[in-house]
Design a protein that fits this description.
The structure is a single chain. The protein is an alpha/beta fold. It has six helices and five strands, in the order H-E-E-H-E-H-H-E-H-E-H. A five-stranded parallel sheet has the order 1-5-4-2-3, covered by helices on one side. Helix 2 (about 70-80) links the parallel strand 2 (about 50) and strand 3 (about 85). The N and C termini lie far apart (about 35 Å).
Length: about 210
């Protein structure tokens, strides 16, 4: 059970915009590189990227990049070299991953660090920000210089908005998901837009 997501539902009820992304792409292959161009005229200063794993760039429960996405993944890795690229999964690197075995396998397969986090998304924002601000060689000075890429509104997108970062929602996962909740979730941004809700525009915090 994702206790973090459950607890943050109350925040979402107060502010539905927390689950709205600043940019949307169909699949991982549709990500523009550099990611700053995903946000139209805003063109934020994106210096670091957080990647979700399952149904974003990998088949769920697999620790390798989905082969059709290999070229795009390499493009991201070339543009945002570690420590400016970080995988944050709600499976690998969490309490669901004893001894962080899955995280180690994933990091070895991708050449990207995997965050070890005790609190699952969307509640691990402070750990992510701390990583980018303190990792040797990082050029990140503000959460508004971070983009989060993921396929779930209530974890990945909400994580970005709670951090004060930018969210890119990968609307269509690696595999077709017929779960009724997922289908409902994918329709939510359009429904919220009808009621006037808009994604927040992140900015540096003084």
């Amino acid at each position: 059970m994702n206790v973090s997501a459950t607890l943050n539902i109350f925040r979402l009820l107060r502010n539905p915009s927390l689950c709205l992304p600043q940019a949307t792409v169909s699949t991982f292959n549709d990500l523009p590189v550099p990611l700053s161009t995903a946000f139209g005229a805003l063109k934020p200063d994106i210096r670091a990227v957080v990647l979700d794993k399952d149904d974003c760039f990998a088949v769920p429960r697999e620790n390798v990049v989905y082969k059709p996405y290999s070229s795009k993944f390499q493009s991201l890795l070339t543009t945002y070299t570690p420590p400016h690229l970080l995988i944050v999964s709600n499976s690998a690197g969490t309490s669901s991953d004893p001894s962080y075995k899955e995280a180690s396998l994933l990091s070895a397969a991708t050449n990207i660090p995997v965050l070890h986090h005790s609190t699952k998304k969307p509640g691990c924002g402070p750990q992510i920000i701390d990583y980018f601000l303190n990792e040797p060689g990082s050029r990140v000075t503000s959460a508004s210089q971070i983009a989060v890429v993921g396929d779930r509104l209530f974890t990945d997108v909400m994580l970005a908005n709670l951090m004060g970062s930018w969210a890119i929602w990968v609307k269509d996962g690696v595999v077709e998901n017929k779960n009724p909740f997922i289908s409902w979730e994918r329709k939510l941004p359009e429904r919220l837009a009808r009621y006037g809700f808009k994604a927040a525009v992140p900015g540096p915090k003084e």
